[in-house]
Amino acid sequence: MALNNTYDARLVQQETAVGAGVQILLLALLGSAIGMGPAGWLTGLAFAVATWAVLSRALHRSRPRTFGPANRVTLGRATLVGGVTALVADSFQSSPPVTLFVGLTAVALILDGVDGKVARRTGTSTPLGARFDMEVDAFLILVLSVYVSMSLGPWVLLIGAMRYGFVAAARVRPWLNAALPPSTARKTVAAMQGVFLLLAASGFLPYAATFAVTATALAALVWSFGRDILWLWRTSRTQRVAVREVRELVAS
Fold it and tell me: Are 164 and 178 in contact (CB under 8 A)?
């Protein structure tokens, strides 16, 4: 049995290596198509190495029997996000072809609704898969916000940085780590960020409409995070009061 577990672990690790290889292949295709500069290449390669290293470490910790079809979809989406990241890094020197940029981003956003369905239908939902999916989403939003901020201003970076700011705050305020109740509104707001940022990044809209779309995305995100933080604070406060009352009752 130990040998089988080791063999399965190697197969799982091979999947991440294949993902890194596909990422490099995509970068080569982009480089030959648009003549990508050093910034794009280095950023894309760094993304590929970081994704492989972080995912391999997470798999080693969780030790799944197989990588799973849903994770393969998410890994494919991460590869597309790596391509988008390289294009954005390269855009500091020259603007990427709009069709290519929009196409890669659109496919990555569409696949966001696929991996979850695959996981549920195949019975392969795992905490690691959910976290992997969430991190890919968050990084794509960050990259898109960087791109849009170059035309609208640094305030757009708040969209991409908000989730990472929340994670950093949770290290200082542990009550922020509590589980949130399911929310359709939260999922809707999260999904609209990528769509609205892609609209803003596409250049298809006039400046006023681009500004309005991006501002709407930010306002919705602030409302969503604010509502969740308020719920977590109230829940934490209620729990603290209950614990204090129990302690006082025991002491008396």
Answer: no
